[in-house]
Amino acid sequence: MIGSGVQKKGENVNLANSKVGTITECKQGTCVFSRGPSITTFLDKTEIRGLSCFIYPKQYTKKQTPQLILIPKQYGQFMDLFAEGEVYQLRIQQHG
User: How far is CA 59 from the centre of its chain?
Assistant: First the structure.
């Protein structure tokens, strides 16, 4: 949880309005959370393994936008499936 003020143990961690975990510990501006409930991520109608994101100082971001890394379910899954410059919808489906 970044830039959202003071967080507390037991609060939900959300991504795109979907719960992805619960805060288990906070100290010195950092929170640790446990994952859950289970989620599945899609880019348009294509299921992907997951997401990875990093926090960088502004000088390391592309066009002042933090990078979000999409992780395919299988090696080579994205080849010829997506094109640079096109727009796709990221969807998170919550289970349970």
Answer: 21
- pTM (predicted TM-score): 0.62
The CA radius of gyration of the chain, in Å to the nearest whole number, is 15
CA dihedral 26, 29, 34, 36 (to 10 degrees): 120
Residue-wise pLDDT tens digits, 39-61: 888 988 889 988 776 655 666 66
pLDDT digits (tens, 9 = 90+) for 67-80: 678 888 989 888 88
Residue 83 and residue 68: Cα distance in Å, rounded?
Answer: 16
- Sign (positive or negative) of CA dihedral 75, 80, 81, 83: positive
**One-letter-per-residue 3-state SS of the chain:** CCCCCCCCCCCEEEECCEEEEEEEEEECCEEEEEECCCEEEEECCEEECEEEECCCCHHHCECCECCEEEECCCCCCCCCCCCCCCCCCEEEEECC
